[in-house]
Design a protein that fits this description.
By secondary structure, this protein is mainly beta. It has no helices and six strands. The radius of gyration is 13 Å and the shape is globular.
Length: about 80
């Protein structure tokens, strides 16, 4: 719940494999039946991604398996104006 609409974030896509517990990450959730992917901003709590949101629909966890759920980058900085 630390990021707000309008905040800026800097994501290092080369650091995806170095994401550690508590890091904010960008991940993709693949839907093989529809042939599409959804990109999410989540907190990494190995082995799952969790949302820091008050919205009940967003509280679902996703297991990072390297096939259906993949971390694409790690948030390394954020700021707001």
């Amino acid at each position: 719940m630390g990021y707000m609409p309008g905040d800026y974030i800097l994501v290092d896509t080369n650091a995806a494999d170095r994401a550690r517990q508590g890091d904010a990450v960008i991940a993709q959730i693949y839907d093989n039946s529809a042939g599409s992917a959804t990109t999410l901003l989540r907190r990494f709590e190995p082995p799952v991604l969790v949302a820091a949101s008050m919205e009940p629909d967003e509280r679902r966890v996703h297991i990072v398996d390297g096939t259906n759920v993949i971390i694409r980058g790690k948030v390394v900085a954020s700021w707001r104006t």
